[in-house]
């Protein structure tokens, strides 16, 4: 089994909480460990965000990791998680402002 450490995904936040975007999808025949997720708010006002490990791009209630988290104006939140994910699972995000950016960092195991 080979392990590759990498940036798993980087996306701009959505403009409305409840509108979701895929940050990362585990490729087929692969497992992943998401070690860190960053949420950077590039605006002068606070923003809220959601994060889920989901089977689809629209998470079910039980799939949320963070629901209603806040990132202060011009600040960054760093989550050290160690999320284990199997092939096909998605790391899904949502934010109240498209001035937020999300990054996922970790490893893929093939």
Strand order of the largest sheet: 1-8-3-6
Question: What does the largest sheet look like?
Answer: 4 strands, antiparallel
Mean model confidence by pLDDT: 97
Determine the N-to-C terminus distance.
6 Å
Radius of gyration: 13 Å
Structural class: mainly beta
Helix fraction bin: under 10%
- Element order: H for helix, E for strand: EEEEEEEE
Shape: globular
How many strands in all?
Answer: 8
Tally of contiguous helical segments: 0
Quote the beta fraction.
over 45%
Poorly predicted runs are none
Q: Could you explain the architecture of this structure?
A:
- It is a single chain.
- This protein is mainly beta and 110 residues long.
- It is 0% helix and 62% strand.
- It has no helices and 8 strands.
- It has strands spanning 3-12, 21-25, 31-41, 47-54, 64-71, 76-85, 90-95, 100-109.
- A 4-stranded antiparallel β-sheet has the order 1-8-3-6, with no helix packed on it. A 4-stranded antiparallel β-sheet has the order 2-7-4-5, with no helix packed on it.
- It is globular, with a radius of gyration of 13 Å.
- The N and C termini lie close together (6 Å).
- The model has no long low-confidence stretch (mean pLDDT 97).
Q: Brief description of this entry?
A:
This protein is mainly beta and 110 residues long.
Which descriptors apply to this entry?
mainly beta; four-stranded antiparallel sheet
Write the layout of secondary structure elements.
Layout: E1 3-12, E2 21-25, E3 31-41, E4 47-54, E5 64-71, E6 76-85, E7 90-95, E8 100-109
Antiparallel strand pairs: 1-8, 2-7, 3-6, 3-8, 4-5, 4-7
């Amino acid at each position: 089994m080979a392990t590759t450490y990498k940036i798993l995904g980087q996306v701009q936040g959505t403009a409305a909480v409840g509108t979701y975007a895929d940050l990362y999808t585990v490729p087929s025949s692969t497992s992943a460990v998401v070690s860190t997720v960053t949420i950077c708010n590039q605006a002068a006002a606070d923003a809220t965000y959601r994060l889920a490990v989901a089977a689809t791009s629209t998470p079910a209630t039980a799939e949320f990791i963070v629901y209603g988290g806040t990132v202060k104006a011009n600040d960054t939140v760093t989550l050290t998680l160690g999320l284990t994910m199997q092939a096909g699972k998605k790391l899904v995000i949502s934010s109240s402002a498209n001035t937020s950016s999300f990054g996922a960092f970790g490893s893929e195991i093939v």
